[in-house]
Amino acid sequence: MLSAREIVSRVKSGELKVTEIVESTFDRVSKTEDRLNCYVTILQEEALKRARLLDESASKGKVHGRLFGVPVAVKDNICTKGVRTTCSSRILANFKPVYNATVIERLEREGAVIIGKTNMDEFAMGVSTETSYFGPTRNPWDLTRVPGGSSGGSAAAVAAGEATVALGSDTGGSIRCPASFCSIVGLKPTYGSVSRYGLIAYANSLEQIGPMARDVYDCALLFSVIAGHDPRDSTSVNLKPKDYTVFLREEVKGVKIGVPKEFFGEGTQKVVEETVWKAVHKLEDLGAEYDTCSLPSLEYALAAYYIIAMSEASSNLARYDGLRYGYSEEFTDTDWFTYIAKVRRNGFGPEVRRRIILGTFTLSSGYYNRYYLKALKVRTLIRMDFEKAFKRFDVLAAPTMPTPPFKLGEKIENPLELYMCDIDTVPANLAGLPSISIPCGFTTSGLPVGLQLIAPPFREDLLFRVAYTFEKNTGYVKEEPEVI
Ligand code: GLN
User: CATH assignment of 4-257+393-478?
Assistant: First the structure.
């Protein structure tokens, strides 16, 4: 499988045509997609048309973009003009946005080719891609297991070669969890570094769009393209665009790594703990220093996260009324409230409905102070704990997920068990910090384990450098799933 970096250089040298690359990607899709179900919408005709246009401009010597000819998959909660964007929900199953998200404009400006829209948990609520209206995606490493979520379609597509790189979104782990479960690289950027314009909101104060790739270089490249100020997103930070690939040096000498004990609590499987510690020791061998530490307020992170996320979701999802777009019902002889209630009951799946109800409760008068406000206070304490830790350490290392990928259907009946899977990923969202998941090994039965690295705000450069050094000195990135 070629990397984005290789594709761009081979197209530039005239060695390969974009059409050939895109055709071979669809060839792969035709071989594995019926087993994996990575895509909600496949854009074969559109992608081939664009490939021909790019080849035409290349033949005239115009090969400019940083992603020229690179096949990209896009999570189905990111708006694509004229192409349906469903959030894997029945309520948006026929929704075609009239505008592109900023990240889509940026991809296209750099010559990327969008292959399709990827499957996800409905409205990004989940860790397994099982709550999708379009059926679950399967893990390319073991088809009986989940790919992680909610960006499970993006991760599985990249791991299986149904795309070269992908965009996901991460509210509480949705890029890092499937990256870990599918043995790829996924970055949750610093809050405010990537525009959310055109990202269909789940919980605005927590989420970011981010890159997913098979190696650290491609991840840094894709991040360089999508990051940067956007006046259409008021939370977007006005920082100069950077080329993050220049930070990719094999050099961790003197980097101080903190290993917080809270990330190895109850529920962490032994194999995960051992594999992550092995990775920390590997980094030590390569010149880094490490020490253990403690962030005591992390004990409350998961509870605070779910209160904040559900509160924001209940407010964000209030707009789906079946009147202007999306799923609708026949309006019979009734009142508007009954009509809207019917649309929402039939249009949303059970997990989304549960969260809207709980989020409405935590925001209602009398409970607001007791739950929502308290969660915000806990959030501040968590941020302060991280600030303190970063006075001592350059980066923090932890497991991405407490367990390897689990079986399809294993946890779906028990929401609490699913929520617990997010224990190690939500802290970075609550504090707005950049966090990357990289492959760091496999269990004896061949299931992937991910290493999570967390850095201070806007220090993605450091994450990439440590991740790159680890990748170059281990072999995990070269492993490919057989998809059988
Ligand atoms: N699993 C978490 C949730 O369900 C995170 C999802 C996400 O990051 N979008 O809320």
Answer: 3.90.1300.10
